[in-house]
Design a protein that fits this description.
Order of helices and strands: HEHHEEEEEHEHEHHEEHEEEEHEEH
Distance between the termini: 53 Å
Oligomer: single chain
CATH class of one domain: Alpha Beta
Strand order of the largest sheet: 5-4-3-8-11-9-10
CATH superfamily of one domain: ATP-grasp fold, B domain
Largest sheet: 7 strands, antiparallel
Number of helices: 10
Radius of gyration: 22 Å
Structural class: alpha+beta
């Protein structure tokens, strides 16, 4: 009991040190939408010259660039809107991707997943984008899985967005590179000066801003064939600017997957399934105040031959391969 009290006292001290401000949740979206009579053409500068010829009385043609799109993501709710007219892409009858300047390839699969979920016809929106964390969060949130509240804004809007981000995500919040591996260079934003400093250093880099989930550890679930085969717990140490600080192989412990939280295991398997992965490394955290589990991200390339507990990971992977061969013969 004394040890448990000390742990919670430490967490309360940490919470006070961060001066946590909870995020503001959006009200549920109104399911009633106006009839879709508009067409959105993204990156269609060459076609914009024909706007008068393309338009008709019964429909409207709208031209926007990829740098005029923003994402808002919360558990069970996703919105993608164009920032010039503040219109949700779900309000359009038809969306066409006319060309592919940077960062179209990075955002494309997340856009396609959103349009598909909303029943919006899309052209040239499949098969090009990368499986980014943005795509993961769109799919997870649309499926009702718990994910950190997340915003994506183009760089020109992000640099001026601190008040809105602090209001919607709470303080502190995390800046994560839109591209890059799981957990690499996650930046903890505590106040407006630290945000401004990171924006100056980043230049025109692309970031996701996401809610900070206070936790004392990250759990990595090795999902093999719809089963959680390995669970590793990595302790978190909080640096001045980066979150989390976890040396590879340091502060890592192995947890019996059979006794690990059933809800967390289900979450890991669901995350892998939604991304179409039979082999996956899923990172999850447990909010130290609410006890709710959140998915941080997922990778299709678990570190079987690196980091801690290599023999255990290789043994689990070998057993998975044997199951696969047995199922196919």
């Amino acid at each position: 009991m004394a040890a448990e009290w000390v742990m919670w006292a430490s967490l309360e001290v940490a919470a006070a040190a961060f001066a946590l401000r909870p995020p503001r949740r959006r009200p549920p979206a109104d399911p009633e939408r106006a009839p879709r009579r508009s067409i959105l053409i993204l990156n269609g500068a060459a076609l914009a010259e024909l706007k008068d010829e393309l338009g008709a009385e019964e429909y409207e043609v709208v031209f926007r660039s990829i740098d005029e799109l923003a994402f808002t993501i919360e558990t069970g709710a996703v919105s993608v809107h164009e920032t010039a007219g503040n219109r949700d892409l779900a309000d359009f009858a038809f969306v066409q991707i006319a060309s592919f300047p940077n960062p179209t390839g990075t955002l494309l699969n997340a856009i396609a997943a959103y349009l598909r979920h909303q029943g919006v016809d899309a052209v040239n929106a499949e098969g090009i984008g990368a499986p980014t964390r943005l795509l993961q969060y769109v799919r997870f949130a649309q499926a009702g899985m718990p994910v950190p509240a997340t915003r994506y804004l183009p760089p020109r809007l992000l640099a001026e967005a601190y008040p809105d981000l602090a209001d919607h995500l709470g303080l502190p919040f995390i800046l994560t590179a839109l591209r890059g591996g799981a957990g690499r260079r996650d930046l903890l934003i505590r106040d407006e000066p630290s945000f401004a400093e990171q924006m100056r250093a980043a230049g025109h880099a692309y970031f996701l801003a996401r809610e900070f989930i206070p936790a004392d550890a990250i759990h990595r679930l090795l999902v093999l064939g719809h089963e959680v085969s390995i669970v590793m717990r990595q302790g978190i140490s909080f640096g001045e600017s980066c979150f989390p600080s976890i040396p590879e192989g340091g502060q890592v412990s192995l947890i019996d997957s059979a006794t690990f939280s059933p809800s967390a295991r289900i979450l890991g398997v669901q995350a892998a399934s939604l991304m179409g992965l039979d082999v996956a490394d899923v990172r999850i955290v447990r909010h130290w105040m609410t006890g709710e589990w959140y998915v941080l991200d997922i990778s299709a390339t678990p570190p079987f031959s690196a980091g801690a507990f290599v023999p255990d990971k290789v043994s689990a992977y070998t057993a998975y391969l044997q199951r696969k061969l047995g199922a196919e013969t």
